[in-house]
Design a protein that fits this description.
Elements (H helix, E strand, L loop, with lengths): L28 E2 L5 E2 L3 E3 L8 H9 L4 E8 H5 L3 H6 L10 E5 L3 H13 L4 E6 L4 H4 L11 H14 L4 E8 L5 H11 L4 E8 L10 H10 L4 E4 L5 H11 L3 E4 L1 H5 L3 H11 L8 H19 L1 H15 L4 H5 L1 H5 L4 H13 L6 H4 L2
Parallel strand pairs: 3-4, 3-10, 4-5, 5-6, 6-7, 7-8, 8-9, 9-10
Antiparallel strand pairs: 1-2
Helix pairs in contact: 1-12, 4-6, 6-7, 7-8, 9-11, 12-13, 12-16
Bound molecules: flavin mononucleotide (FMN).
Flavin mononucleotide binds next to strand 4 and helix 10.
């Protein structure tokens, strides 16, 4: 993963202080079966970040649905231990989705069947991953070049499982119009919903996500469409809906430093205004729970190592975190972790997320 992917996108110069007014406020999304997404705000899968402990936190803080990090279908079929561990869902995140990647419809179908047996309520297919190792195997965003191959994957999965199948796509491979034909082909095979990250594979994570591409997919389909890319504040949630007409919004990187974006975004959709921001004590509590839940699953040492990258994102904008950057990067025990957060939160600053982005 290119580390620049985690740099916040530049602020939108057209953003105003007023919350945008919506003609139509999206409600709960019904994906078939018992799967209802309410509020229609979804955590984007992010490999290396949206692990089981993080997803639990996001769900507790109001996220309507989350998917696991991407796993390769082949690894699932082979029973690869680490793959199955990444694909595991906790009872707190039901209904829960597992995201798979691959190019062979039969292998994808067999992997989906295994995952449904292990508790997945739906299967999401990754057609957006830009990484060379994946696209060289005709998987991830390589499928944006080939609507028939993309549709064949959904058909292959649906031969094996009855749960809803959703797909996450990009705007295209090298042209932001390619998503329309791919999305139509996916809908024709019975895809339950499509999430569109408004960048092409060629763009990787650079530039801004195209809302035109997302709107074009929304206008072309009858199934629910989620808009994704550069949604970093509750206002962006409303603007994404206003500019594209989507049924729901998928949020990735911003949730890593502001998991309250789901509750705040839901309130902004419902009431056109924000609730009070989390206090420093609430933010500390959530980070502490996150550490302890990660440690309970993966052990104290791994939790400490993981928390180096999470804490530096989560504590963005806290002056103490900037000062203690070196300590954060060398934490290796629970005591190290708490020593850092005790200092950072003792200062009591609750950052303004809009300013962090600037
Ligand atoms: C570190 C990282 C890991 C990601 N891993 C995945 C993944 O496993 N599956 C996937 O579909 N997208 C993945 N993505 C893409 C995100 O789901 C999302 O589409 C992208 O970050 C744009 O949304 P955002 O601007 O809200 O972050 C990843 C993105 C990042 C930054």
């Amino acid at each position: 993963m290119d580390p620049s992917a985690l740099r916040p996108p530049p602020p939108d110069p057209s953003a105003t202080a007023e919350m945008p007014r919506l003609d139509h406020v999206p409600g709960p999304i019904r994906l078939g079966g018992d799967l209802v997404v309410d509020p229609p705000l979804v955590l984007a899968p992010m490999a290396g970040f949206t692990n089981i402990a993080f997803r639990r936190i996001a769900r507790r803080l109001g996220c309507g649905l989350s998917a696991t990090e991407m796993v390769m279908a082949e690894g699932v079929v082979r029973g690869h231990d680490r793959t199955l561990e990444i694909a595991a869902l906790s009872p707190e995140e039901r209904p829960g989705i597992v995201q798979i990647a691959g190019s062979d419809p039969e292998v994808m179908g067999r992997a989906a069947a295994i995952l449904v047996d292990r508790g997945a309520d739906a299967i999401d297919v990754n057609m957006g991953c830009p990484v060379r190792k994946i696209v060289d195997r005709c998987a991830g965003s390589a499928l944006m070049k080939d609507p028939r191959a993309a549709a064949a994957i959904v058909a292959g999965i649906k031969r094996h499982v009855k749960v809803p199948v959703t797909v996450k796509i990009r705007a295209g491979w090298d042209d932001a119009r390619q998503c329309i034909d791919v999305a139509k082909a996916l809908e024709a095979e019975g895809t339950a919903a499509v999430a569109v990250h408004g960048r092409t594979r060629e763009q990787q994570y650079s530039g801004r996500a195209s809302r035109d591409a997302i709107r074009a997919v929304k206008e072309a389909l009858r199934i629910p469409v989620l808009g994704n890319g550069d949604v970093v504040t509750p206002r962006d949630v409303l603007e994404m809906v206003r500019d594209t007409g989507v049924d729901g919004v998928m949020i990735g990187r911003a949730a890593l430093w502001d998991p309250w974006i789901f509750a705040q975004g839901a309130r902004a959709l419902r009431e056109g205004r924000l609730g009070p921001p989390p206090t420093a004590a609430e933010r500390r509590q959530v980070l502490a729970e996150f550490f302890d839940e990660t440690a309970a699953i993966r052990g104290e040492h791994t939790a400490s190592l993981q928390m180096r990258k999470f804490a530096s994102l989560y504590l963005r904008g806290f002056p103490g975190a900037r000062r203690l950057r070196e300590k954060i990067q060398t934490m290796s025990t629970r005591a190290d972790f708490f020593a850092v957060i005790d200092v950072v939160f003792a200062e009591g600053a609750t950052p303004d997320f809009a300013q962090i982005m600037e």
